[in-house]
């Protein structure tokens, strides 16, 4: 009976019940969140270190839940990925980002936009074709749209990922490898990836000033990327010293709380006017 009791305990653990219930609720709610206009994009500036100018923003999705408040993407993106909802979610993100691009242009603000593409999207050939059609239909200049793809999305099935990425690149889209250094891609794979840019993961940048190993890693990554003809974005820049170090080491772009947190679209125009670097 000991075994059965243990099993009972596991099944009826109130904590697990609660968690399962909440996940279940989120899955159902996410389906209607888009229809109910509960999703919103925030934008985080990326600073070009040579020009000292913001040239691009990264679109980051937020879920403004009517009862639970703001739900961060780290909570609902993994659920969307597991429950087959990434296609719907990413389509919404891309359309919203392109509309925002045009709105800013009409206000005289020239910014390219980066959006995050998940591993699920990359595997979905229908989605990949939809993206190209949509960019054309909504008159988005391809060179003003960067797709950020995590290393892991490529590692799962490198051959088909490389094929898809090449297709996008040939059509003129800009491609970036996100969270670089945290996945398991080999240097050999990096050489084969048809991308323009890598984003060094913030775990290497956040403590850069106090950590000599991080300095060595970031310096070597910059050198490697530049030798391969790739440009580099450092994410997670949280202080001026790090920004200066990156500038001295020829990093192309920086992004992080020191510059700005992700902010709503209507705050960005004001931020652009008031900030000087
Ligand atoms: P990510 O693509 O690596 O985005 C960067 C995350 O780091 C953002 O969190 C941003 O707010 C945060 N961050 C930026 N600068 C700093 C800094 O200086 N210090 C610290 N500590 N954090 C910083 P966020 O917005 O919560 O997004 C988390 C993740 O959720 C993103 O990581 C991305 O993987 C995913 N995500 C967000 N929006 C989307 C989306 O539209 N589609 C997909 N597929 N994934 C998304
Ligand atoms: Ca990203
Ligand atoms: Ca990242
Ligand atoms: Ca990340």
UniProtKB/TrEMBL annotation:
Residues 23-276 form the EAL domain. This is cyclic-guanylate-specific phosphodiesterase. It comes from Parashewanella spongiae.
